[in-house]
Amino acid sequence: AALWQALWSGERLTATELGALQAAAHSRSVCAGEMVFTRHEPARDLVMLCRGDVGLGQRSADGLFQLERALHGPAWLDASSAWLGEGYARDARALTVATVLELPCSTLRTVLERQPALAIRLLTALAWQIHDLAETAHDLMHKEADSRLAAWLMQHGADSTASAPQTVVRRQNEGGRGRCTAEGQTDRVRRG
Asked: Which of 63, 81, 143, 151 gives the lowest tally of CB atoms within 10 Å of its CB?
């Protein structure tokens, strides 16, 4: 019951709601290194991580997995793709032995029609996921952006941006940061 409550907005579920969810869900164990789901398969289930660690990311054609985010159970691995009738948004690979619960969207739709309070809890859980992803996106875009830009410029040079160094500097300095200068075709990055 604690697992369900943690993933369904933390509110206490009624016995009827809990029974309906447990009847609809399918549990499976996944070995470390095994794919939980891939972007290339149709998403038919909402997928929850009960125990263990799973990485979300992208598996390349040659089988290499680029980890973008690691989750520790209990956590939603994907609560949205099945509603869209598309493939999963990311590949999911078990980092440790893990237990996942899969809720078929078609079955859950019927459960939610009969248990409208549960639908509100799911919407709240989805809203928290969106909130967390928005914060993560913000952090990725803004934290240490100056040093990431400087490192990229040092590695690749402004010429590979298809912009003159002055254009790169002007874009970086918008907002008053003023940490980059361009003199002729030379870039200078000031630390701090």
From this structure: 63
Per-residue model confidence (pLDDT) at position 96: 97
**CA nearest 89: which of 48, 37, 51?**
37
Tokens describing residue 168 = 């790169």
Task: Give Cα 116 to chain centroid, integer Å.
Answer: 27
Whether this model's pTM surpasses 0.90: no
**Three-state SS string across the chain, please?**
CHHHHHHCCCCCCCHHHHHHHHHHCEEEEECCCCEEECCCCECCEEEEEEECEEEEEEECCCCCEEEEEEEECCEEEECCHHHHCCECCCEEEECCCEEEEEEEHHHHHHHHHHCHHHHHHHHHHHHHHHHHHHHHHHHHHHCCHHHHHHHHHHHHCHHHHCCCHHHHHHHHHCCCCCCEEEECCEEEECCC
Flag whether pLDDT at 171 surpasses 90. no
Cβ–Cβ contacts within 10 Å for residue 177, how many?
12
pLDDT bucket at 78, cuts 50 / 70 / 90: very high
Q: What confidence score (pLDDT) does residue 34 get? A: 96
Q: Which residues, at least 6 apart from 154, have a Cβ–Cβ distance to it below 8 Å?
A: 189
pLDDT in tens, 93-139: 999 999 999 999 999 999 999 988 888 888 888 887 787 777 777 76
